[in-house]
């Protein structure tokens, strides 16, 4: 009763939102199970418990649906990384990334989409702009605040942050697929901070 | 004439070797063009200019052929990285890796095989052992020699080398797919050396 009362004002719109979410969830599960190449709208509809029409009312094609879901996931807010120190922020970011990469659905979907991106310019474009956005936000949050605190020089280039912080953990977990225990995560965080300090140092010839 | 004379002693074996090489090359090109899922032995035979029988005489299946080629590529020797300093060795390794990642065939095949690995345990196993071998060799060459020179402490863990050296450049070129100019490659090398120094430092509680 309470739930229905709460729902009442938004009415059908809420219901549509729930179907959309169910379709998105089903798409992620299908992508993980069979990959983009073998994915069918019919299987997504079956898994979501909706009609194919319900899907085609929202998206024109399988590609449309996948691009939309990728954008939606990519634009999720990053947790507020503000531990008060660069070391703490980098360690927290590595924890967040290791959680995401360790997720079984993500660990199957990400490589699949990257492989499709090598052949499909639309998927490549969407992934690249999502990644660029993600890199920019990491740079702004982690590097920007470290510069404010005086932990990094003001000339620090935010673009290097993702390479140096996310690169090693992505390689370890998603490419080499080796485990990373908490002590190693700590060590990786300290190494990333050292790398950032060197990469963000203003070149000597610009100090003249 | 000279070529035939040179070839004579090995006879038919040499010819077979050439066909094998042609099939391997054709497989790489097909993999890059259509991906593992859509790859057919027929198309590989057509591209190599050989019969399907010539392929099935050598490999039992498409999977067999792909696993063999992956192993063959992965076991290629790393160039002797011995510039005399850790900085030099890391920079040279980054140059080699950037060359490999920038190769159009590699940049399509690698993500495709990683995606298949998430679903096919045999591909995953072959890739993982090839990568492990590669990581071990990098570790032994780069870390081992730096320890001998006194540039890194003797407790240095060779396994971290690939994460910290290859991770950032792989992220930059293969995931974010952004260019890397020579000045940035230099900066990435200096950052990797700083990261290695921190990651390889013997923990304080072990110095007691």
UniProtKB/TrEMBL annotation, chains A, B:
Gene3D superfamilies, sorted: Homeodomain-like, Tetracycline Repressor, domain 2
Domain of life of the native organism: Bacteria
Protein name: TetR family transcriptional regulator
PANTHER family: HTH-TYPE TRANSCRIPTIONAL REGULATOR RUTR, TETR-FAMILY TRANSCRIPTIONAL REGULATOR
Residue ranges crossing the lipid bilayer per the database entry: none
Matching InterPro entries: DNA-bd_HTH_TetR-type_CS, Homeodomain-like_sf, HTH-type_TetR-like_transc_reg, HTH_TetR, Tet_transcr_reg_TetR-rel_C_sf, TetR_C
Domain HTH tetR-type residue range list: 17-77
UniProt-listed Pfam families: TetR_C_11, TetR_N
Alphabetic keyword roster: DNA-binding, Transcription, Transcription regulation
One of the record's GO molecular function terms: transcription cis-regulatory region binding
Keyword hit for DNA-binding: yes
DNA-binding residues (ranges): 40-59
Entry annotated with the keyword Transcription: yes
């Amino acid at each position: 009763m309470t739930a229905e009362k709460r729902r009442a004002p938004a009415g059908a719109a809420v219901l549509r939102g729930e179907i959309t979410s169910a379709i998105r969830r089903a798409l992620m599960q299908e992508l993980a199970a069979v990959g983009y190449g073998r994915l069918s709208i019919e299987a997504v509809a079956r898994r979501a418990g909706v009609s194919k029409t319900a899907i085609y009312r929202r998206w024109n094609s399988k590609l449309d649906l996948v691009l939309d879901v990728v954008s939606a996931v990519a634009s999720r807010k990053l947790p507020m990384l503000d531990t008060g120190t660069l070391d703490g922020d980098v360690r927290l970011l590595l924890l967040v990334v290791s959680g995401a990469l360790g997720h079984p659905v993500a660990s199957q979907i990400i490589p699949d989409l990257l492989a499709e991106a090598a052949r499909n310019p639309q998927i490549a474009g969407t992934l690249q702009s999502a990644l660029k956005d993600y890199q920019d936000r990491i740079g702004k949050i982690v590097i920007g605040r470290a510069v404010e605190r005086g932990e990094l020089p003001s000339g620090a280039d935010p673009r290097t942050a993702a390479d140096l912080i996310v690169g090693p953990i992505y390689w370890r977990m998603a490419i080499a697929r080796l485990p990373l225990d908490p002590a190693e995560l700590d060590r990786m965080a300290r190494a990333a901070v050292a790398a950032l300090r060197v990469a963000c140092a203003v070149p000597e010839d610009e100090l003249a």
